[in-house]
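sanity check this fold:
=====
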Amino acid sequence: MEVSSSVPSRRAFLQSSAAAAAGLLGGTAIAAAAENVEPKPAWKMRLSCSSINFSSLPIEQAVERIAALGFDAIDIWSAHAGCPHLDDVQKRLGPEGLKELLKKHKLELYAFSVYSGGYPRYAELLGGAGGGVAVRGSAGPCEAKDLTPAMKQFIEGLKPELELAEKHNSYLAIENHGSALLDSIDSFKAFVDLNRHARLGVALAPYHIQTYRGSIEETIAVCGDRLLFFYAWQQANGTEQLPGIGPTDCGPWIAALSKIAFRWPVNPFMHGEPEPEAMAKALARSCEYLKSRHKG
């Protein structure tokens, strides 16, 4: 028996049903359903705090403050601007003591900022405490024509530190800075293009990019999965350096991080820390702002 051309076949019916569902549910969800694959989960923002924000307090009290503010993780600083925390941890607590302290307050160890002292000095401690990201600077600036060879030389010079990172289950994040090798958008592109090391990436400080009115969102996109640390930090004075207090709309930053599925905590940051009560109040306000911009 012939099937009338006016009656849709089962295959045509299923195809038309799928098309209708696509219009109702949206392209991403129906594409996943067509492949029998779960839709990709939405990006979830986590937050970390740098211990230098409470550098006037002993490490135990700094950790307690940070945990009480609802942060997920901590970035512990070496002796930049006199911060005592990392050296104190190394001399007095050791890796097991640090793990115990963080476990007590339900904080993850995210990073060691080793601008003072350097990564090799703290590599074993970081690994022994579970591993994490070590944040350090790059090198001196160069002429634009020399950027590629200078960046190549810099990355090759990191080989001993990268071997330590491999040994101690850690990562090395290079921060951008004014008047430094890693600064301009072209320098980020060169770094990413030349970087062949799985444990080497970028610690991105928008504050310094804003000095030349660069695009934070473009820089985030260039870094992609090489972005290991993000300072939520704007160019301003005092606590206005923090998101939600200063003038910058940080929503586009959060959107750009979501687009690359940034897998590390976002770190609201400032220099020139006020006394602990004022610092805690400012950080609480900043965290609420970041959460609202993530939702919005």
Remarks:
- Residues 144 and 186 are 9 Å apart (CA to CA).
